[in-house]
Amino acid sequence: MAFLKTIREVGKYFHDIYSGVASLMRGMKVTGSYFTRPGSIVTQRYPENRDTLKMFDNFKGELMLIHDENNLHSCNVCNTCARKCPNGSIEIIYKKVEGADGRSKKILDKYVYHLDTCSFCGLCVPACDELALKFDQKFEHAVFDKRKLTKVLNKPGSSSKTTNE
Amino acid sequence: MDIELKEKEEYIINMGPQHPSTHGVLRFELCLLGEQVKYVIPHCGYIHRGIEKMCEHLTYPQLVHLTDRMDYLSAHINNEAVALCVEKSMNVEVSDRVKYIRTILSELTRIASHQLWWSAFGMDLGALTTFFYGLRDREKILDIFEESTGSRLTQSFITPGGLMGDVHPNFQKRVAEFIKYFRKKLPEYDQLLTGNVIFRERTKGIGIMSKEDAIDYGVTGPSGRGSGFHCDIRKIEPYSAYPFVEVNEVTLTEGDTYARYLVRIKEMWESLNILEQLVDNVPAGPIMLELKAIKAPKGEYYQRVETARGELGVYIVSDGGPSPARMKFRSPNFSNLFIINKLAAGHKIADLVAISGSLDLVIPDIDR
Amino acid sequence: MYDFAPLIDSITSYLNTNFSPFWAGLLAMVMLGLVLLLIYAVLGLYLVYAERKICARMQNRMGPNRVGPMGLFQTIADLIKLLLKELIFIRNADNFLFNIAPFIVIVASIMAIGSIPFGKGLQAIDLNIGVLYILAISSMGVIGILIAGWASNSKYSVIGAMRSGAQVISYELSVGLALLCIITYAGTMQFSEIIASQQNGWWIFKGHLPAMIAFAVYLVAGTAETNRGPFDLAEAESELTAGFHTEYSGIKFAFFFLAEYMNMFIIAAVATTLFLGGWLPFHLFQWQGFNQVMDFIPPVFWFFGKTAFVIYLMMWFKWTFPRLRIDQLLALEWKYLLPINLMNLILISFLTLMQWHF
User: Using CB atoms within 10 A of its CB, is residue C209 exposed (0-12), middle (13-18) or buried (19+)?
Assistant: First the structure.
């Protein structure tokens, strides 16, 4: 009986070697097969494909104030977006002007957007009743100077649709 | 706590906060005897940001985006936990469409998280190729997220009362494509790592956690289920669309590193099954509840969900105001971490790396 | 065809006629040294490049592709960067040993390369105990690693160095025994004669199954001896950050790095010479036409082709397998490789005694 046991143990020893080597071979088959298939490369060549690289429509790049072709935006300085923002990334600086009816009215002076504190939660865009905001597809946010991350979103010379009415 | 050196040959070594295999700023204080680990004392707090305190002066929709930054690998599920808790407090119920989409997103998140874990686990054990295969497949899921939610990692898409927007029209098609794609790629994971004799030798019988230990330490998620602890919230307390689908809880009884590994691999298969049941049946409906104000009435509320790492509890104490009076997250990683001394003591350093890898720790979730 | 001996003889005779014997010898040595250093540097750099490209392909990546066409100059740029980097001095480290360790490692591998036959007559020194010399010299590198680990005054480094010591001492046995199999067949330790003995067929084919087993064992043990692949416990990035060279920076780190790749090359070159016929072309039985075409390819290409194949195998191992644990590593050597090797050696001795090999 002891002899049989020895035989069985020796058999197990060699079986271990065989199954071990076989399992290693299976792994090598996977890597080896990818080695022979250059078509499976998934790397994007980023700066070269800049022209063709398009983000998805919903992509949350950086915030922008929508301007139409007449350089008009639809912000009416209600400050809802600034209040909804958890990080205080939006600051709205307004001027008070005398309206046509004699009442003072707020008009947008600077729509300041702090990209450095923005966490792209997306609460500001649906908060706007005027649909004045949207997210851009721009994703290259890197700059050499931190001050460049504070942006004024209304274009120079633009005015609000509501004040023109 | 200080380690007392009992023998002359013992020495203390710091693993972390900057160390490739702690996956973040976690520090293990190790007492070693040669290669043998005598004690492990985890030190956390290197990435503490006070999220719970910050939540106290943010409104409920605002604080959702902070939960993305806890367990960043299951961002959707964290969002969902807060959303469910707030909805529970207000006693409202979202439409079936929202429930379905939430569950699909959660299951995709779970797969993505397990893929990243698989990649990093292989790398912990020295098989560097796994990292690229895992991330390659995870990229498909992140593309689905990006198309629908606009972000790849911290989506903040699920919000109290519904969703931030509707999903992209391609969403269902892409998810179905992904299921097909990943069904083909998953066996590759097995060939590369699961079956590998070196891998099996490295993980089998290493860091055995008994069921009692798992319950005592509150180890949940796949790590707990590897020890036979039935702790799948999707099964115990079905939320969102889980009541509508068949969920099989994956449990193994060995409790070693290999069992924890296998549970996660099997969960990826299981998540694919759940996705398959859901993806073609998403009903139509509103994506956001018409609510005057989103705030919890006075009282205390608790909701738990199953993240990719275990049970995430959200506890809100509200005084009726727009923001919570106290917010508490019962994060799975915090509980999962502290069993490491029990698991790793007596093993080698290499085993400690394997064990901490198999617990699948996400450090920002520990510190919050 | 393609015999380099006349060229070398003419250089030697030119030196001997124009200079006194002392200067002739010195000049010959300097020239040889320069040529070997050049080969060493270029080979080392392009092995790094090859490894990066190969692993990239296995991982669905592109690998280096920015510096030069297809990234061919990437490693050269890396070398320049490493040359310019600050050499960090460690407080409380043993500075003398700390500085000398990388040189020991790199000198060991440069010395080993001297006796490798790149082609017919293309061999710096054809020792009659060539195999023994290679074994002795290549195991000197571990002294450098041990010193590096000890002198850095870092616990991670010491663990790495101790692992490396245990590993190299164990696997040296298997490497030696596997080579002994072929020495038994060939009956000589001189590289040129071992190659000459394979004129009618490479040992891996002539030597039946035992030679193949010896080749496999040699590959595994050789990979382990270079601290590479699944056996990179001395570095063990995920456990010991970088093991024995954690504290090294700049060109001293580059020395360790280059030496690792050149050790791999040496292991592959020895495998080529002993098992795969060295620079001999591939011949098939009596097919004269085929054999003549094969003869037409220069021996240097044959040598580097075969070496590249063995190196590819070693890289394939590295990028597929997880790392072993230290006790498993030793168990693999003492429980599996060594007994198999010993049985193999007895079998081969018997075969040689009965003259049953071709």
Answer: exposed
Q: Identify the band that residue B336 occupies on the pLDDT scale cut at 50, 70 and 90.
A: confident
Burial B344-365 (b: 16+ CB within 10 A, else e): beebbbbbbbbbbbbbbbbbbb
Name the residue among A24, A31, A45 with its Cβ closest to that of C58. Answer: A31
Query: Assign residue C73 a region: left if phi > 0, alpha if psi is -120 to 50, beta otherwise?
Result: alpha
Angle of CA points A77, A78, A84, to nearest 5°: 115
Residue C243 resides in a domain = yes
Host H or E run for residue B207: none
User: pLDDT band at C3, cuts 50/70/90?
Assistant: low
Q: Which two tokens stand for residue B25?
A: 């700023």
How far apart are the C-alpha atoms of B34 and B251, rounded to whole Å? 36
**Range with the lowest mean pLDDT among B116-120, C154-158, C200-204?**
C200-204
Rounded Cα distance, C38 and C46, in Å = 12
Token digits of residue C163: 């692992």
**Nearest-CA distance from A20 to chain B in Å?**
5
Q: Which of C55, C57, C335 to mutate to test the interface with A (most CBs of A within 10 A)?
A: C57
d(CA B174, CA B152): 15
Which residue's structure tokens are 């901490």? Answer: B356
Task: Examine residue B129 and state whether it is found in any structural domain, yes or no.
Answer: yes
Indicate the number of domains in chain B: 1
CA C208/CA C348 separation, integer angstroms: 9
d(CA C287, CA C281): 13
Helix (H, G, I), strand (E, B) or coil at B5: coil
Reported as a single tens digit per residue, the pLDDT across C293-315 is 777 777 788 888 888 888 888 88
Does residue B94 form part of some domain?
yes
- Indicate which CATH number applies to the domain containing B177: 1.10.645.10
ipTM of the complex in this document: 0.82
User: pLDDT by residue (tens digit) across C204-260?
Assistant: 777 778 888 888 888 888 888 888 878 888 777 777 777 788 888 888 888 888 888
Average pLDDT, chain B: 86
Asked if A112 and A82 count as a contact pair (C-beta separation under 8 A), the reply is: no
For residue A34, the chain C residues in CB contact (below 8 A) are 57-60
Model pLDDT, residue B343: 86
Nearest to C319 among A17, A31, A40 (CB): A31
Question: Any idea which residue has 């790398």 for tokens?
Answer: B123
Residue C184 within any structural domain of the chain? yes
Burial B183-203 (b: 16+ CB within 10 A, else e): eeebebbebbbbbbbbbbbbb
The structure's pTM equals: 0.87
